[in-house]
Fold these 4 entries.
Entry 1:
Amino acid sequence: MSETALCSDYAAITEIRATDPTAIARAWQQRSTRPTLRDNGRLMIVAADHPARGALAVGSRPTAMNSRTDLLDRLRAALADPGVDGVLATADILDDLVLLGALEDKVVFSSFNRGGLAGSSFELDDRMTGATAASTAAARMNGGKMLCRIDLDDPGTVATLAACAQAVDGLAAHGMIAMLEPFMSTRVDGKVRNDLSPDAVIKSVHISQGLGATSAYTWMKLPVVDEMDRVMESTTMPTLLLGGDPTDPDEAFASWEKALALPSVRGLIVGRTLLYPSDDDVSSAVATAVSLVR
């Protein structure tokens, strides 16, 4: 446990939230921070912002992420690996982790838009209901991330685009990274599906990287798809590869290893694949991913 930890267990977190909520802001100010890139300029980030969108399933387990304490256990195991640079999550999870002292000398990205609840009729009107540029800067984080799903048949898309553009500007004004996660999406039998064909990913990159008044602080978060070399020719933005829903671990690791060799790719940002591996051995899955990045 870090010397700066205010809580030694989860009951203590609830106690602080009930009796001394200002301790959370103090914990953020006391935390030791670090620059986004160092050493070999690569990043290994774990992601945990799905629950706030009501997306609690992992593979065939529909309630895998129901338990917050179990998720925190898994995140702490991942962050304990010195090869893991940091975490992307919503404020509720990040506040828990900072109280536990798990974010010392770690890169931290906040998650901005969680308004597009999974399975809702308004899923693609994904408004900014999470962190803000101001809150991200106040907590001395490294940047913020936005999901930017684009459905040419859904009017809600334009609200998402406008919100993402404003967030890019807000983060840039604070000199912080604006990480965009774009997809061309459509509804199939009422459910939103992302088009993972190379040309669709390329189109999503071009649309999203043009958002905002400046691209100086814009990064991409992209899926690993076929013809990744051609996909990466669509951008000069620093890019982190996302893991997506768990598939065959060996297949996933092999695809990441190949894509990591491409220009502009700076590392991985992976959530469920590492936090909820089929054998529940988080440390082993994380160690394998770290070895690819390093």
Note: Residues 41-293 form a domain with the TIM Barrel fold (CATH 3.20.20.70).
Entry 2:
Amino acid sequence: MKSINPDDFKVIDKISLKHIPTEWHNHADDDEKKEELLKIQQKLSKRQDAMYAHNRYGVLICLQGMDTSGKDSLIREVFKEFNPRGVVVHSFKTPNSTELEHDYLWRHYLALPEKGKFAVFNRTHYENVLVTRVHPEYIMAENIPGIEKVEDITPKFWEDRMEQINNFEKHISQNGTVVLKFYFHMSREEQRKRLLKRLENPEDNWKFSVGDLKEREHWDDYMKCYEEAINKTSKEHAPWFIIPADDKEMARVIVAKIIWEEMQKLTDIKEPELDPKVKENIDLYKAQLKE
């Protein structure tokens, strides 16, 4: 399998989504992809165990993408070797009445990972500059001072909100949370095929939502919003990675590889050692247990 370089997917300079491919070819077959993913899964699992014992860092994995882009299946496959205590998945839906009584970042603060753990945001705080930007009428439910009607939502409102998100991510990264953000870059034609498959396969019918078709009509608007959000919020402390998502299996390998390489940068994480006094008497304790 061709080597995967995380920097090839990392957003460092301004990007244009229409010029970025939605599929990455490395001439690997499905068996090779599965084998490579398994190797990375096992390494990540051991790394997470060490991180849990080290108890200094939390890791926030943010997944964004259009419907059917493969976020759910990636979570299932990439983290399947983790100790269940080490990873928590949060799928953020439309804010409920309690959440709407607070600012839009409140519920995301509550879901941040504990030290030593991973948290996966399946859809994230970026919905607040994506869905609400495509459908600004949703903002009215937030009861924000000075916003009495949709016309009050100016371009500066979105600029401010993205700056607030930058500040949020900078704050948590400075306090021990590693932030990695992945955009699943899927073609519109691939989404059409996946939606059609949900309708044609009875066992997948439950996944289909009429709302998916309605949102599909806003594809160009979403691409514009994604592009601007990524360009304005990809920072060294909270980078975006654009993942070609037309091939689900390859996308999983790429994301797992990136997470693994980023975890390797935390060089102070070491396997825990026994207390010296316990180590001195280890033979004694073994003898007692054998007796």
Note: The beta strands are 58-65, 87-91, 118-122, 177-185, 240-244.
Entry 3:
Amino acid sequence: MNEILRVTGLRKRFNELLVIDGIDFSVLEGEFFCIIGPSGCGKTTLLRIIAGLEKFEGNVFLRGKPIIKPGIDRTMVFQDYALFPWRTVIGNVVFGLELKKIPKKEALKMANEMIRIVGLEGFENAYPHELSGGMKQRVALARALVCDPEILLMDEPLSALDAQTRIEMQNELARIWQKTKKTIIYVTHSIEEAVFLSDRILVMSKRPAKVKAMIEVPLPRPRNRFGKEFLEISLRLYKILENQINGPGGI
């Protein structure tokens, strides 16, 4: 796979507070790339920098071109769905295509196909208040994917769901990623979720954040959450994070 994103010498300050202190990593095209780390270490800030929503020191390149502002080549999916309550499912999904001036007939065809891919056929005319949390997140995912971004940025998108729905959505997200082969950068607090979904996991240190570890997840899909190798990788991550929290200067 070819490299799609490269981050070098990245630093971020909020006034005098140094949040990120010299991060370097790259992401491959079509990769499911997870980011985990202690609470408050700057995971969401890092995602917002890649989205072009934060100023920073250092370099972030998308296909060799510097990221300096938001663009249609990157789309972000948030924890709280960020759906328009006055729009139906199809109205929410087609929104980005309207901004891109896609002809209405073509845009509706594309939106309906993405609704089918995320498993929401039959709910095209439902409003967000009529949907469960998992269904709302599917709408948010469809709205992001239909615009065909270079990179899909996901900020703890499943954390507000109950345990059973979260597992179902992890399975669905893995299925959708395998179907679309979209490059995904995914922030999560859940070690199990990271191991279940990702090709590689970037572990950030406590603030000011550095790259503590880069963990390969060479497990075949679909993944067995109770398999020996799955549990071994999870335990390795737990130990790294535990050292970050309980070690010298931990939070």
Note: The helical segments are 43-51, 89-93, 95-99, 104-117, 133-145, 163-180, 191-197, 228-246.
Entry 4:
Amino acid sequence: MNFLAHIYLSGENDLLKIGNFMADSIHGRNYNNFQIEIKKGILLHRSIDSFTDTHLIYRQSKHRLHEKYGHYSGVIMDIFYDHFLATNWNTYSEIKLEEYAQNFYKLLQDHYDLLTEKAQGMLPYMLGRNWLVSYATIEGLQMILFQMDHRTKNRVDMHESIVELKHYYTEFETEFKLFFEELRAHCADKIKELNQLR
């Protein structure tokens, strides 16, 4: 799962969203350096990643990309699944995606001092290119994949995976919908568990 799903799966808790959003840049037990609600978001992020990486449906989706993209097939698949969340957004939220994205950007700006240095550095690009809304279109997705290519020094041409996305679009979307229902249930249970932390 990529940014949009991680944020959405955090529910209505703003600090949980922030922790979940920036968790990739927080390693080991460094989550203990953050206030409790952000710490919960970091732990939720890790739980989402573990659930996703080991899930049979997700692995089935990722397998279609593995021969060509190897290790990066998971990175691509996370972005593809965010695409399907964005294109089916009205199924999962009563707030329009554009409004949801703007609310989250404002949340990050209002809590800028709580962000990691990496998240602070990412913020101008996220806002400038409206990443969360970009997931909804093929063109936006290709832009994000081009950026990923640049960040990984073009080890593989991830932007070319748009070909596979179009070819297997129905299969990927069906798998996403089945998987996401299970992931939502998992996250609801995980948040209840995390809310016991003090």
Note: The radius of gyration is 16 Å.
